[in-house]
From TrEMBL, chains A, B:
The keyword Transcription applies. Gene3D superfamilies: Tetracycline Repressor, domain 2. Residues 17-61 form the HTH tetR-type domain. Residues 104-187 form the Tetracyclin repressor-like C-terminal domain. Keywords: DNA-binding, Transcription, Transcription regulation. The lineage of its organism: Bacteria, Bacillati, Actinomycetota, Actinomycetes, Micromonosporales. It comes from Paractinoplanes pyxinae. This is TetR family transcriptional regulator C-terminal domain-containing protein.
DNA sequence: GCCGGTTTGGACTGGCCGGTCCAATTTGCG
DNA sequence: CGCAAATTGGACCGGCCAGTCCAAACCGGC
């Protein structure tokens, strides 16, 4: 499928609109009609740019969101050198979710579809988690290199635990509409690594 | 609605069957027809015992599963007195999920429905998480009382972080089909508390 | 300004599935 | 037994919504 500039624009408009719609209402709730309304497109456009229909569109949204999130995390973590940086990263993340009304663009996508209905989405999510963990590991290594973390600490499993804490924090944020679990998880990880 | 013994039996048969069906296929995937087939019931029975239809049934399943989980956690944690107990609890939990094919009866229920479509389910889940955290806090307090955890440790936020780690571990287990995040999260929590 | 391909509009369809309904059967109690 | 209530069977309905289709409009190169 060859796209002109105009087509490209429409396509991304659809992805962004669908993304927003899903964030607000959840994957399962969103109807193609909703996306059409928000993005001012017709059904034929949807199926023109996403021949696989709804599923392909959701997959595209998943890809888009994971890329965004990963880019943000990479940017924040690649210059890790002090506990101040850590604190900054933590506060930014908390603030970001606050700004989104304590919702998460990805979590809804994950457990609803991934694994059963859409193996492809599952694969994207797995890859995303793996990449995120790698980024975290890198960050921890950087702190270790500058002596902030003891040299004999196993940063691999520390990163695994930290990622779990973050994901769980987000999950609990969505469920309970409170953000303190996320804060506690990251803070406890910091405390453990500082010791 | 008054239930005879027979009715009671049918009702629980439906809940258990629906529960199993949901565990296998996910809430969204499951059709009333699937549940009817598995539990050998007719549609009129479903609506007789759950006048609210699908939604009420899912809610009943949610309640059932949370009760089970909470009972299990309470049993395991109420006799906490040593790090051996901790290790046991950890291993049992890991083994339990292994036995379930690295699936979780509750996580699917949570993010799919809770919050948007079914505020009631959301409430049940929130209550469940709160209760679980309370049970964890109790357990930690017990370890603290016997000197295994430093007296000045804030067990409240430690429990919050631990719960986040567990939830995230389960989430990552579902996504990646690996259980090491859950292990790492619990182990790191133990390490942090031991120090 | 003509011609291929791209983009867009929107009516229509077809299946799926939750929910309704009524009638038949069983149960428990006096 | 006899009756009222509980239980069960399953046909049927109707809305919803993803996906299809055809034709119109638009665009860009020559």
């Amino acid at each position: 499928m060859t796209l002109t500039r105009k087509g490209e624009l429409t396509r991304t408009r659809i992805v962004l609109g669908a993304s927003a719609e899903i964030l607000e209402s959840g994957v399962e709730e969103v109807r193609l009609e909703d996306i059409m309304a928000r993005t001012a497109t017709s059904k034929s456009q949807l199926f023109h740019y996403f021949p696989g229909g709804r599923e392909e569109l959701v997959l595209a949204v998943t890809r888009h969101e994971t890329e965004q999130a990963l880019a943000a995390q990479t940017a924040a973590l690649q210059s890790f050198a002090s506990w101040d940086d850590w604190q900054h990263w933590r506060d930014d993340m908390v603030a970001w979710y606050h700004g989104r009304g304590l919702r998460c663009p990805l979590l809804g996508l994950l457990s609803a579809d991934a694994g059963r209905r859409m193996p492809e989405a599952q694969a994207v999510m797995t890859e995303f988690m793996t990449a995120w963990q790698a980024v975290l590991t890198e960050g921890l290594r950087r702190l270790q290199a500058t002596g902030r973390i003891a040299a004999d600490t196993d940063v691999e499993s520390a990163a695994a635990a930290l990622l779990a804490g973050i994901q769980g924090g987000i999950l609990l944020m969505i469920t309970t509409k409170r953000i303190d679990h996320l804060e506690a998880a990251i803070d406890q990880a910091a405390a453990a690594l500082r010791a």
